[in-house]
Amino acid sequence: MNSTISQLAILGAAPSFAEPLHVGRPNIADRERFLEFTAQMLDRRWLSNNGPLVQEFERRIAEFIGVKHCICVCNATIGLEIAIRAAGLKGEVIVPSYTFIATAHALQWQEITPVFADIDPPTHNLDPARIERHITPRTTAILGTHVWGRPCPVESLAEIAQRRGLKLMFDAAPAFGCSHRGRMIGGFGLAEVFSFHATKFLNSFEGGAITTNDDELAGKIRLMTNFGFSGYDNVIYIGTNGKMTEVSAAMGLANLEGIEGLVAANRHNYEVYRGGLASIPGLALMPYDSAERGNYQYVVVEVDEAAAGLTRDNLIAVLHAENVLARKYFWPGCHRMEPYRSLYPYAGLLLPETERVAARVLVLPTGTAMSSADISMVCDILRAAVVHAPAVRSALAAAQPTT
Ligand code: T4K
């Protein structure tokens, strides 16, 4: 083992990294291309409101995914709110609790009740076998999240939705560039919503897109994104301001043109992690299906405390002491955050797998800003922590504030 690593910061040595390593460091595929698009935008003096760059970005996304309609929005949270409203969801909607809080908030914001269903532990996605127990006369839809960009069990969810007369939509925020059974995510269910937030695989600073094959729904979503305006001076729906700006589309286009390079960088990082983590007891790297297209944006590790001798939170503390800002997405689950924790205090009783997975997952930094040497160092830190588990536990216990 590397001797500097055997001196973990948690045991008193200096941190391995002088600067923090972040999960979600933005990918910037081609700075020159972004500046070219931006210069065109400034020359045109067309900065927002369905400008030519947004139109081009929408056209290219629809072509890339193979879907009829793409409507770009200012972020995925607003995109979800609009798609949910345009599709007429109301009453109760079944969602995972193991997702980013925006999935639930987009419903609750419009006074629709998110009903949390449990996940399938190996995939972290909604478990179709645990959905029907939540269906009531008020249920109108299932809203699945493709967690980590790994596809939901689309066919099983569609079968339940059809049999029970429910609509089906997907929060595809992390899943741009991923496929399921050879078809790109974006064309499943009634509509899917992507995020192009700075931390996402493909970013437009802030942004998102709603994709659908439904002509009527697409028309409604487009109007709702622009206050409900149908031409000048004519409002025909309730709407909001969900518009994407031109500078966001410029970034999105530059990144879309460089998408293969982004995938290659992420995939390379993933493989370096796979090699580095392989022999560490108690750490299991979440696999991606190599037969599908993936964006490899999340390096997700599950920690088995019994085998590692340390909990996930112990390892997070070790990594943070070394300036590796690993995250514990989506801990503790939406149902344990407000307002859901107060509204539905017993939701956790039906979410045992969500609670178990949420306590075990840690997400490691990747993306184009990470070097192979950095990744090897992160793996060395994790290995050293597990090898020195008793000493690490003592150091952490000693660091606990006394009450
Ligand atoms: N549904 C799902 C399943 C989602 O995952 C998300 C978003 C949404 C819906 C909603 O999409 P948007 O409305 O955001 O389009 C981040 C993102 O803010 C959020 O977009 C994302 N999911 C979520 C999983 O992660 P935080 O709370 O982790 O953000 P923050 O500020 O801690 O940043 C993460 C790390 O990235 C930090 O270590 C700093 C680093 N960073 C961040 C930014 C913005 C940078 O290095 N540079 C940057 O510019 O939520």
Question: Can you give a write-up of this model?
Answer:
This protein is α/β, with parallel strands linked by helices and 403 residues long. 38% of the residues lie in helices and 15% in strands. It contains 15 helices and 16 strands. It has helices at residues 3-6, 31-44, 52-65, 76-86, 101-108, 154-163, 215-225, 246-257, 259-277, 305-308, 312-321, 340-343, 352-358, 372-387, 389-399; strands at residues 21-22, 69-73, 92-96, 113-117, 119-120, 125-126, 139-145, 167-171, 179-180, 183-184, 192-195, 208-212, 283-285, 299-303, 324-325, 361-364. The strands form five sheets. The protein has a seven-stranded mixed β-sheet with strand order 2-12-11-8-7-3-4, sandwiched between helices. Strands 13-14-16 form a three-stranded antiparallel β-sheet. A two-stranded parallel ribbon has the order 1-15. Strand 5 (119-120) and strand 6 form a beta hairpin. Helix 2 (31-44) packs antiparallel against helix 8 (246-257) and helix 9 (259-277) runs parallel beside helix 14 (372-387). It is globular. The model has no long low-confidence stretch (mean pLDDT 96). The structure holds ligand T4K. Ligand T4K binds next to helix 4 and helix 5.
